[in-house]
Write a structure and sequence with these properties.
The chain has 1 helix and 4 strands, in the order αββββ. 16% of the residues lie in helices and 54% in strands. By secondary structure, the chain is of the alpha+beta class. It is globular. The protein has a single domain, classed as Roll (Nuclear Transport Factor 2, Chain: A), CATH 3.10.450. The protein has a 4-stranded antiparallel sheet, with helices on one face.
């Protein structure tokens, strides 16, 4: 999990101390284990799916948080 979080943060150039994690989950999709990581930073929500075995980013998105 920590490696997956580091991968997501490195992808956007942030440190763990700068973000608020809202989801950290190990899930299986079509037989592939993946980490689902979500965090907020500067008015945006970032979502990542990261392969649990290889550490490869499978999907990612960035959306504006609407309050």
């Amino acid at each position: 999990m920590e490696s997956a979080k580091s991968t997501a943060l490195k992808d956007v150039g942030l440190e763990a101390s700068q973000v608020q994690f809202t989801k950290e989950k190990l899930d299986t999709d079509d037989g592939v284990e993946k980490y689902e990581i979500e965090f907020n930073y500067n008015g945006y929500e970032y979502e990542y799916d990261i392969d649990a075995k290889t550490g490869t980013i499978l999907e990612k998105s960035k959306d504006l948080i609407n309050d």
